[in-house]
Every structure is written in C-alpha cells, then in structure tokens.
Amino acid sequence: MNILVCGGAGFIGSTFVRQRLHEHGDEVTVLDKLTYAGREQNFHDFADDPAFRFVHGAIEDPEAVASALDGLDGLDGLDGLDGVDGGNGGVRARASGPVEAIVNFAAETHVDRSIAEPDAFVKTHALGTYVLLEAARERDLRYVQVSTDEVYGSIEVGTFTESSPLQPSSPYSATKTGADLLVQSYFHTYGLPATIVRGSNNYGPYQYPEKLIPLMVLNALHGDALPVYGDGQQVRNWIHSTDFARAIGHVLAHGAPGEVYNAGGPDEQPNIDVVHRIIALTGASEDQIEHVTDRPGHDRRYSLSSEKVRALGWEPSVRFEDGLAETVTWYRENAWWWEPIRSGDYRSYYERQYGKALS
Ligand code: NAD
Ligand code: DAU
Predict the structure, then answer these.
(1) Of 44, 205, 292, 336, which one's alpha carbon is 20 to 30 angstroms from that of 330?
(2) Nearest-angstrom CA–CA distance, 310 and 139
(3) Phi/psi-derived region of residue 283, left when phi > 0, alpha when psi is between -120 and 50, beta in every other case
(4) 217 CB neighbour count, 10 Å cutoff
(5) Ligand (nearest to CA of 262)
(6) From the candidates 143, 152, 172, 302, which is the catalytic residue?
(7) DSSP codes, 61-77
(8) What's residue 72's pLDDT?
(9) Please, which pLDDT band fits residue 78 given cuts at 50, 70 and 90?
C-alpha cells in the first residue's frame, strides 16, 4: 500500500512506519510537525529506505497536507539526522502511485501537559483532524484515526466495549473524543471509509520520557526520585507498542468502514506495582519512591475489551512482564536516543511539573 502516516515521528507512529516498511513492503510518507515529542531520530533505521518519505508540516495546515498527499511544493524533508546514520538528504519524490490511505497518529499525547496548557490539544485534535478528513474526502481515501481508551473515562469494575458511553475526563481525552466524533460524522454524512482504533496504555522503545514507564526507568537509572501520583493504586491496561501498531495495521486491512475497534493489552497493573517492577529490573532503591500530589481529575482505572478486533484475527503477543524487561534493556542500551532529551528542554518541563530538578 501507499500510506500517509501523520504523526509518524512519534513513539507509536514510528513503530507503525517501521512495521509497514519492513514487514509489509509498503510505501510510506510521514507528515509530522516535529513537536517536542516528534523526533527524526526515530527514523534512524529506515531513513534511507527508498520507500520512505518525510514531510515536515502540521496536520492543521491544509497546504502541508496537500503537499504530503499530492506533491512536494518546497516543504522541508529530512536534512540529515544529528549523530545518526542515514537521512535521505531532503524530500524524496514518491516512487509509485498515489496515496491510498491516511493513518492519523498526530496528537498532543500527555495528559499532564493538557491540564497545564490545553491550547495545542484543541488545535491539533479538532482542527487537525478536520483538515485531514477533508483531504481524505476530496481524494476518496481510506482513513484510520488512532484513538485512546481515555475517551471512555474511568471504570472501577468491568471493561469498556466499543459501545460504552464516552465520558472523557481531561482536556487530552476530551479533545481526542471530539476528533473521534468528527471522524464518525464523516462516515455517516459523507460515506468516508473511516475507522477508529482505541488503544490502551502503550509502552516500549522510543517513548518520550514524560510518560510513566520511561520516566521511572530513566529516573531509576539516574538515582532520581520516582514520583508516584497519589496512592499509586490507579490501574492501567498495558500494551506493547508493536502489538498496538499491528492492531492498527490489522484494522487498516480488515476493519469495516464506520466501525470502532478497541485494542487493549493482555495485562492490567496498578502504577505502584509497575514502579516496584522497574526498581527490581534496574537495581534502584525503594527509597527513591516519592508519593507526590495527585493529577487533577485522575482516572482511577482503564480496562479495555478487545473482542471485536480479536474477531478480525489480531491478538497481542507481548506479556507485560517480558515487554517491560525488554524495554528497560532498550533504555539502558540506547542512551544516544534519550540523552539529548534528558539534557534538553525536558529538564525545564520536569521542573515545572514536579517542582524539582533532575540529576
Ligand atoms: P507521541 O507524543 O510520541 O507522538 C505524537 C506525534 O505527533 C509526534 O511525532 C508529534 O510531532 C506529532 N504531532 C503532534 N501535533 C502534530 C500536528 N499538529 N501536526 C503534525 N504532527 C503532529 O505520541 P504517541 O504516544 O506515539 O501517540 C500516537 C497516537 O496514539 C496519538 O494519537 C495518541 O492519542 C494515541 N494513543 C497513544 C497511547 C499511548 O499510550 N501512548 C495509547 C493509545 C492511543
Ligand atoms: O490509556 C491510553 C493513554 O495512556 C494515552 O491515550 C495517552 O496518550 C498516554 O499518555 C497514556 O495516558 P496516561 O495518563 O495513562 O499515561 P501516563 O504515562 O502519563 O501515566 C500513567 C499512570 O501513571 C497514570 O495513572 C498517572 C501515573 N503517573 C504518571 C507520571 C508521568 C505517576 O504516578 N507519576 C508520573 O510521574
């Protein structure tokens, strides 16, 4: 296939692109704004692939979207990766036919940032999704929206299905919900062949260290405090990013237009247990745990039923215990990836969020 992947420079998007290039032989164009979370370094092992193109631009910019879909018009592409082999030395023309599908990962993704500064969340999720949907409608393209279990809100007991009510709690999840509703309206009103995939909490290599698991791993390895929000008994349903990326590919290939598919991981864990596991895997000290002020409006538990996508033939393959150990090893062995983050703007974000400096 020939696919436009929006937000493909991020954690899950780049994992998806890697799979499409290496496992499916697809042709992939990435359109990405390169926010703090979008990194050309995530292309390090496929930047030179002739089937890969990168266009630097925002999904809310109709010209950037048109250029990524139809032509180049002088937009920036890869201009060489700092300290990384590869880089295609500028935008490469597409080799074969037109784009057939848009897969939209592009988003602001951190709940804490949405509480502190919601503006970009509204712009990217509402306006950005609208611009992509219009582009897909004009060109009659398939469309996959990458969404989240957070649109359902919190559940104390039981499990969310695709027909559970939408009750988002944060500016992040509320704007993601708005985007989902807009996608569904384009199916109902215009017949756009659109699907939505809602994932549970992802973890794995290349995740920006503002999120629980990479934050705790890197803080554990550096002897920094491990900041647990509130009592740490909040439960998350963990899915490895390679499993989630395959679920999205599976829905792209086999999903029915207009349908929503949940893709949850095989294991649920309270946050405090995740932190204990990370301490054991890194050799850190229990004394590093610090219970800090809870996140406002903090969702207590997420739990996702994935029966519908399983019926299409997908299932997760990585158990949390194994995936977490592999993820800790990846962070240990890939300081080239996280060192520029941990010594850059992330330090001031961390101080603002946690009221203390990283070592
Ligand atoms: P991420 O923060 O690592 O990456 C987001 C990417 O989107 C970055 O490359 C960023 O530069 C790009 N981007 C942001 N705004 C943009 C804009 N306006 N135009 C173009 N590009 C823009 O995120 P992630 O964790 O890889 O999440 C990807 C998607 O999966 C998101 O839609 C998120 O809501 C969804 N999701 C994430 C998780 C999770 O646990 N991380 C779980 C379920 C669903
Ligand atoms: O459920 C899917 C969602 O998972 C995605 O849609 C989001 O993009 C993604 O960020 C994630 O949201 P969470 O808020 O669940 O993830 P986060 O890693 O921020 O936090 C996980 C849990 O850990 C949550 O209960 C808050 C807690 N936490 C987080 C951080 C960063 C802490 O206790 N301490 C921390 O420092």
Answers:
(1) 292
(2) 31
(3) left
(4) 26
(5) 1
(6) 172
(7) -HHHHHHHHH--TT---
(8) 56
(9) low
